[in-house]
Design goal:
GO terms for molecular function: holo-[acyl-carrier-protein] synthase activity; magnesium ion binding. This is 4'-phosphopantetheinyl transferase superfamily protein. Keywords: Transferase. Belongs to the P-Pant transferase superfamily. Gsp/Sfp/HetI/AcpT family. By secondary structure, this protein is of the alpha+beta class. The chain has 2 domains: 114 residues, Ribosomal Protein L22, Chain A; 101 residues, 4'-phosphopantetheinyl transferase domain (Ribosomal Protein L22, Chain A, Alpha-Beta Complex), CATH 3.90.470.20. 45% of the residues lie in helices and 21% in strands. The chain is built from 9 helices and 9 strands. Strand 2 and strand 3 form a beta hairpin. The model has no long low-confidence stretch (mean pLDDT 93).
Length: 243
């Protein structure tokens, strides 16, 4: 019940954000998805292309296999939603059962045959989110983490650490964890927007404000939009000039 309430909240946030930032999305419950996979639900298995099925069979780790499948399933459901509201005949006529969502450089997903469409996927059990857009986009979701000082020094800017420590110094460790998790999702979403994976020095990405200025990257000005509750944080990243 708790997970369904969280998913409902995430869906509401994404629905309100989607029109402004021009993307389609899908949020799924990984526990329900696993039951459908193991139950051989054709509504799930039928959406994968032959290429994707061959990749699925190569995964020996069950957890990674489910995550990979869930990301592709969510991505294709997001494509279906985009098909319903597009004025492009090329997009409207996509056969999602024949399209493959693969991993490219730095494990960034891409929709094979549709280079003008961008996709971003994130999962943190039991949630999985996928976004599809004509614009560059990044998404990250994380369950609330317990933050330790060494992690702060290795991944966070001085400005972010100061904001987090203000809460810790007031003995409000839960709020400090919430804020640190929020900052982390913003960093991850920005990294996915740039398609550089973990090759980005997170200590140089200050996410205290909604606008982040970056140097030496293809996108130098990024806007992040976030939602948070006690269970998880979700952040989206967009190239600011698109807004």
């Amino acid at each position: 019940m708790e997970q369904e309430m969280v998913i409902k909240e995430l869906n509401s946030f994404l629905q309100n954000t989607a029109n402004r930032y021009e993307f389609s999305y899908e949020v799924i419950n990984l526990r329900s998805f696993m039951r459908n996979v193991f139950g051989k639900d054709e509504n799930v298995w039928g959406i994968f292309s032959e290429v994707e099925r061959s990749i699925i069979n190569k995964y020996e780790n069950p957890k990674k296999r489910i995550q990979w499948m869930a990301g592709r399933y969510a991505g294709k459901m997001a494509i279906k939603k985009l098909m319903l509201k597009t004025d492009s005949s090329e997009i409207a006529n996509i056969d999602v059962t024949k399209v493959s969502i693969k991993n490219g450089a730095n494990s960034a997903p891409f929709i094979e045959g549709y280079p003008h469409l961008n996709i971003s996927i994130s999962h943190s059990y039991p949630y999985c989110v996928a976004l599809v857009s004509k614009n560059k986009i990044g998404v990250d979701i994380e369950k609330t983490m317990t933050i330790v000082q060494p992690m702060l020094k290795f991944y966070y800017t001085t400005n972010e650490i100061n904001e987090i420590n203000k809460l810790s110094n007031n003995n409000d460790n839960n709020e400090a964890d919430f804020l640190a998790t929020l900052y982390w999702t913003r960093k991850e979403a920005i990294s996915k927007l740039q398609k550089v994976g973990m090759n980005l020095d997170f200590r140089k990405i200050d996410t205290v404000n909604d606008i982040t200025i970056l140097q030496g990257l293809s996108i130098d000005k990024v806007r992040t939009v976030s939602i948070q509750n006690k269970h998880c944080s979700l952040s989206l990243a967009f190239e600011e000039r698109v807004i």
